[in-house]
Design a protein that fits this description.
By secondary structure, this protein is of the alpha/beta class. It contains 12 helices and 11 strands.
Length: 346
């Protein structure tokens, strides 16, 4: 079984962006040292939910700090990029990292991220597919030409080309939109399953993808799908809950808050004010700990991950760094997981 990291690079009040990046770098170096296979970072804009607005820049720094661990984007949001520039930046990062890059694409979650870029969210599906087609074409085709609804490319040659041939591995996220799932299947690339789905919904999505992939003739197995979960492990169940409950509550509150915003963003407002005036109720900690996260002792984590393995999951992504959990607590959890959980899946 392969184990990776995943982070939104959350920026809670009371921390600084430089602190967030510095701590993420230390976590990545620990992951490489202790045997994790990969580390994935999200792209988000205008929000404390995640400061990976230039996630490829972040990953370039992380590539310089490491030697062997694979680096991933989960996800880049193609509709918010010019496809030629995106193809160039990703190919350059593949060169910088020595061919350690995995590229995840997705449509994103918050409408105000599109609004901030003056992109109509109703165009997101078309822009998403067109941009990915151009990026992949530039990576693989000399004198590439493309005539689309939003972009035209005239006899372009990508410099530098990516190190990996024919290009870095591509993964594409789908969550609840069937049209996106159909598109992922049609590309012949693996799905990414993110942390926003409950366990059962995530497994159902993976199984539907596998069945549709087989029908389409690509036959991508469930074992090829990176399956991401919130995860925290501690010596005792009481300690695990004490550490994880405020962090996952912050994450759910931010998710709910972001959904309520259409213009601007929450970044210069206070979360406590939203909590006092909100009209919706987020999932409880007990619900999340049972249905969407893995939180507990090493033995509890082993048992739950074993259940996923029995369903065919072989690429498991751990979101240790969520909701502003203290850095030393995240590092202890990562180390304990590597020492007490991962050896059971070798």
């Amino acid at each position: 079984m392969k184990f990776g990291l995943f982070s939104h690079l959350p920026w809670p009040e009371g921390t600084t962006p430089s602190q967030v990046i510095h701590e993420a770098t230390e976590q990545l170096c620990l992951a490489e040292e202790t045997g994790y296979y990969s580390s994935w970072f999200a792209e988000h804009h205008f929000s404390r939910y995640g400061i990976g607005s230039s996630s490829l820049v972040v990953l370039s720094n992380l590539a310089a700090q490491t030697k062997t661990i694979r680096l991933g984007t989960a996800v880049l949001v193609p509709p918010l990029h010019h496809p030629v520039h995106l193809a160039e930046d990703v190919a350059t990062l593949d060169v910088v990292s020595g061919g350690r890059l995995d590229v995840g694409f997705g449509r994103g979650t918050a409408n105000y991220e599109y609004t901030g870029y003056n992109v109509d969210p109703s165009e997101s599906q078309e822009r998403f597919q067109e941009t990915i087609s151009i990026v992949e074409g530039l990576w693989t085709t000399p004198d590439f030409n493309y005539e689309g609804k939003y972009f035209n490319v005239n006899q372009a040659n990508l410099v530098p080309p990516p190190v990996q041939e024919p290009h870095p591995p591509i993964y594409i996220a789908a969550t609840r939109t069937f049209a996106t799932l159909q598109y992922v299947v049609s590309t012949g690339h693996p799905l990414i399953c993110g942390v926003v789905l409950d366990h059962d919904d995530g497994l159902d999505l993976c199984n539907r993808f596998v069945a549709m992939s087989e029908e389409a003739g690509y036959n991508i197995p469930i074992s090829a799908i990176p399956f991401f979960r919130y995860l925290h492990v501690a010596e005792t169940e009481i300690e695990a809950r004490k550490n994880a409950e405020p962090a996952i509550s912050w994450t759910m509150d931010m998710t709910d808050w972001r959904r309520s915003i259409r213009l601007g963003s929450e970044v210069n407002q206070r979360l406590e004010n939203f909590r006092k005036t909100r009209t919706s109720v987020p999932p409880t900690y007990d619900y999340l700990a049972e249905k969407r996260a893995i939180i507990g002792t090493p033995e509890q984590c082993i048992a739950t991950i074993r259940e996923f393995q029995e369903q065919g999951i072989e690429y498991f992504g751990c979101n240790f760094d969520f909701g502003g959990m203290p850095h030393d607590t995240v590092m202890r959890s990562m180390r304990l997981f590597a020492e007490e959980v991962m050896p059971h899946f070798q």
